[in-house]
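Reading a protein record of the kind used here takes only a little practice. Each token is a code from a learned vocabulary of local backbone shapes. With that in mind, consider the following protein and its fold in token form:
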Amino acid sequence: MQDPEGAPPTLKRVLTPIGVLLLAFSALSPAFSVYIGGDAVLHLAGTGAAVAFLLGGVAAAILGLLYAEVGAAFPGAGGVYPSLAALLGPLMAFPYIVLLAPIVFAQTAFAALGMADYIRVLAPGLPLMPLAFAGMVAATSIAVLNIRFGAIVTGVFLAIEATALTILTAVAVLHPARSLGDVLSHPVMLDHGVLKAVPLFTLGLATVSGMWACGGASWGMYFAEEMHDAQRKIGRMVAWTGAIASITIAGPVILMLLSARDVGGLLNAEAPIAAFLKQTGGPVIAAVVSAGVAAAIFNSLVACMIAYSRYLYATGRDGIWPKAVSRRLSTLHPTLHSPITATLVLAAGSTLMALLGEKALLILISGNVSDYLLVSVAILIGRRQGRTGAFFRAPLHPLVPVFGLAVTAMAVAADWLDPDAGRPSVILLVSLFLAALAYYHFRLRQVSKDWLIVAEGVEALGAAD
């Protein structure tokens, strides 16, 4: 597809479903989820992590069907918000966009700091912030290039990541110590150095964390405008991403718990999964896998920047912000057809966000449950209006969106019970959403009649090739 002479460049449909799948899996990073998310759940619920990842993985796969249906109905570079704009209208879409904007920068910064933290485990003398900034610069230099090249680069890193997870899985399978039934029926956790049964309440919190760790099906939606025949293919791709991600993330954690011989020592370790690998597979294998995990975290940073730069570009193109800001964000490179300004803005903003530190960033991002809530409502409305389900249809309607609403309530409750990060995050993000809702209702709706892609425009984007 060529641009008319004199017309501004547009995003090009150059990606196959495999290319989108590589980018989506690079962004959600199974290795990062296993090693970082897995360690967190192990510290929270001990061997109850097996139950948490089993149930959380199933839940994440089911919720992926929500994104698959709305993504197939309204595929756009903005990810979820084009669907919300079309099905729920600007009144709901605008607060979501405002809510997501700081989270985009915070999550990218968190990935950069996570990469630096992991490298420092391998080389303790290196400084944190310079490592994070160097990673941001390196990731930006890849993210600004042609997206097909980005898919190739992330695919190479993803192969390294898959190798690291395969080694962990193989070590676990070759050293069985207990049955799955034992682990699932008698979960224990470390309490002041003593192994005790995991309370049901703690198991519930861990399951929510396991669900977040196994999630990520929506990443592919950010690349829909650059995918051939997106409307017919993106839904199945998103659904398969959710299912495969849940298996590749939950599986290694569960298998590791089946083969851990010293459960108390494992749970007492600062990094339980790395400690298991060193004890069971040996220091050489542990070092090789750790290097692979560091590469995986960097790969996740690159893919996140590619995805979120599309989100910022789409908000600019759709006129979400003041005209000067929107015009800049919607700038594409004339030959690479990449959102170069949006990528550089994302890099600069995320670098500044990184200075806040991991705790502040966690407070900002951990309480975001708006996706499941709004997408579930959007599908309930879209099905009734006949505007979703033509290209991909989640089965057993309305059970999946109702399940999404139930998960939203569980996630809010789990965050509220976390006074350090979850509760402040819920309060902050709900306040921001309500403020944006009020601003649009009382001010923006009267000032601009042309704001945001209307339903017909979204549908045109989905149908174009």
